[in-house]
Each structure stands twice: as structure tokens, then as C-alpha cells.
Automatic annotation (TrEMBL):
Source organism: Haemonchus placei (Barber's pole worm)
Protein's UniProt name: PDZ domain-containing protein
InterPro entries noted in UniProt: PDZ, PDZ_sf
Domain PDZ span(s) in chain numbering: 5-84
Membrane-spanning segments: none
């Protein structure tokens, strides 16, 4: 896990931050739908980032995050947790006969 501070600034309120939020079953607020080329994208926000703090406030539910984002003026600061996913695991499926044949050929 990595903790990342993301700061964004916009010239006027008509410019979108360029991301959405959703609530996980455990009540974490998660970044979704980061728009390519948006302020959020250029600031380094990623889909799947988990909001730890917004504007210095922590332990926020999705309603509080929504209120803060809607009322924000020209700057916002988020602290997010980012979990890395490792390379996908590829499984090679074998028949039982193939596995037994391999086991017969093992030596110690």
C-alpha cells in the first residue's frame, strides 16, 4: 500500500475535477471513473484509490465527500491509499493423467 497526496487547482468552478466516487461495502470511499486528461488524471489520481482524507478531514462517508467536492472552489487536496495489484496469476490446467505422469518422473 502507498499513501499519496493529490493536489488539484482549477481556474473556475465550471471545470470538472474529472473523477467520481463510490462507496465500498466496508464504507470506504473509492475513486472511480478518472477521466483521461482531466485535472484528476494529470494530478495522478487513479481508479481504485481509497480516500483517507479530503481537505484535511478524515473518516468521511460518501455523503460528506460529495458535499466537500460540490462546495469546493478552486483547490482540493486528497490523501489516498493506493493498493498495487501484482501480475496476474496464470494457471496451466492439466489433466489428471498428465499430473500423474509428471509425478512418476520425479526423483529425489
Amino acid at each position: 500500500m502507498e499513501t499519496v497526496t493529490v493536489r488539484m487547482a482549477r481556474g473556475d468552478r465550471s471545470t470538472s475535477w474529472g473523477f467520481g466516487v463510490t462507496e465500498a461495502p466496508n464504507r470506504d470511499v473509492i475513486i472511480v471513473n478518472v477521466v483521461g486528461g482531466s485535472l484528476a488524471d494529470r494530478a495522478g489520481l487513479r481508479d481504485g484509490d481509497i480516500i483517507d482524507q479530503l481537505e484535511g478531514l478524515g473518516n468521511l462517508d460518501i455523503n460528506a465527500v460529495d458535499r466537500l467536492l460540490v462546495t469546493s472552489r478552486d483547490k482540493i487536496e486528497l490523501i489516498v491509499h493506493r493498493y498495487y495489484s501484482f501480475l496476474p496469476i496464470t494457471a496451466l490446467l492439466r489433466t489428471t493423467q498428465d499430473v500423474l505422469m509428471c509425478l512418476k518422473n520425479l526423483s529425489y
